[in-house]
Design goal:
Blueprint lengths: L6 E9 L2 E4 L2 E5 L6 H11 L12 H14 L9 E7 L4 H12 L8 H4 L6 H10 L5 E5 L5 H13 L5 E10 L2 E10 L4 E2 L2 H8 L2
């Protein structure tokens, strides 16, 4: 049985105050500040008009913005695109905010707007709604970026025709520390998908 060579069609990273797509710097944030301020600046620099962005928690904003940057100049994937994301900290940043809101019994006031983001897979939903993706969604929590897991799972979805394309990667946020890497996996492109290649691009 022949193993089909899938491709890494495009990739994006958000780290160290930069947004990089296919090794080209798309945006640099010169000011020192919070990750919340950084995401707002990226949103404005990309010229996005999507009011719901401002209601998202920061983890969702990072995943949303990486997807926007990734698809900015790419051929738009069809609605059978799957999303396979992972991180180390789950939704810990928002969990802390929610915990603070319920910790004081005398001032008990949990926010429904915060509570809805206390699961990391909500970022999948936000991206899917924005781009009308109806393919499979999966969110894994692992100690570190796991190129083997992402490669194998993406291959499985494509091999079994569960998806026409896969957007996979890592969207991690803990306090003010963030690390984001996304890649489009499909049958188009010049870079063959391998665990080693995906890992190399993540560490670029």
């Amino acid at each position: 049985m022949m193993v089909e060579d899938y491709k890494i069609t495009s990739f994006c990273s958000i780290k160290d105050n930069k947004v990089i797509v296919d090794n080209k710097v798309l945006y640099v944030h010169e000011e020192q500040g919070t990750v919340k301020e950084f995401t707002k600046a990226i949103y404005k620099s990309l010229g996005i008009k999507y009011p719901k962005f401002y209601k998202m928690d920061t983890l969702c904003k990072l995943g949303f913005l990486a997807t926007e940057a990734l698809l900015r100049n790419a051929e738009k994937p069809d609605n059978q695109t799957a999303l396979v994301l992972s991180n180390r900290s789950s939704s810990l940043a928002t969990d802390r905010i929610h915990q603070e809101s319920i910790a004081n019994k005398e001032d008990y006031f949990p926010s429904p707007a915060v509570f809805v983001y206390t699961l990391p897979n909500i970022v999948l939903g936000e991206i899917s709604i924005r781009h009308q993706f109806k393919g499979e969604n999966a969110f894994f929590v692992s100690e570190q970026f796991d190129a083997k897991l992402l490669t194998d799972y993406s291959r499985l979805l494509l091999d079994t025709n569960k998806a026409s394309n896969v957007i996979c990667g890592w969207v991690n946020l803990d306090s003010n520390k963030y690390d984001v890497f996304l890649a489009i996996i499909s049958r188009k492109g010049n870079t063959i998908l391998t665990e080693e290649q995906l890992n190399k691009l993540y560490h670029t």
